[in-house]
Amino acid sequence: MKFTPRSETTRQLIIESVANLMNRQGYAGTSITDLEKATGLTKGSIYGNFENKEQIAYAVFDYNLLRLRQAISNAMDKCGTYKDKLLANIAVYYGSMDSSGGGCPMMNTAVEADDTHEGLRKRAAEGLLRWKQDLTAVIEKGMAANEFKKDTDVQKTALTIIALIEGAILIGKATQNPVFLDVILTTAKETVQGISQH
């Protein structure tokens, strides 16, 4: 029998209430008691709207990824050049160590789930690949507009920017040193400068 949630409104309340918590603590580190405290709901109410904790984790990851993609999209919408659009991707992550949201959902999920939860690992991978596609599109448009060098290796540049951003978050959080985060994000900005015509 197909599971049907009792209430779409309650389901959304659960997702929004536990989004930051699950992003910080992860799937394994978040208990049903944590979910009850965060939502103010009983176990019965939570599981009346989600089949199991795994389904909550999927919905929360999707929600957190959407929030991140919207933040990046909003930052890029304010930019007049493709170079500034690439730099906006990087700027979104400045200060991400202090974020009460717990940092990048793709990074957190990939690190936790790579060997333990195939479904969440796949979701993180899809998020990263979509991000790569977005960056690739910006770089290609920038090349067509003569903002970026014609010999730019588009795939390599997109992956380098992602690797530097995610690496900056990992090293910054692990060492609790925001200076490392800034140093590596500056290197990501230099990557963008390196493909620019001016």
TrEMBL record:
The keyword Aminoacyl-tRNA synthetase does not apply. The keyword Ribonucleoprotein does not apply. Residues 31-50 bind DNA. Residues 8-68 form the HTH tetR-type domain. One of its GO terms (molecular function) is DNA binding. SUPFAM superfamilies: Homeodomain-like, Tetracyclin repressor-like, C-terminal domain. It comes from the Bacteria. This is Transcriptional regulator, TetR family. It comes from Chitinophaga pinensis (strain ATCC 43595 / DSM 2588 / LMG 13176 / NBRC 15968 / NCIMB 11800 / UQM 2034).
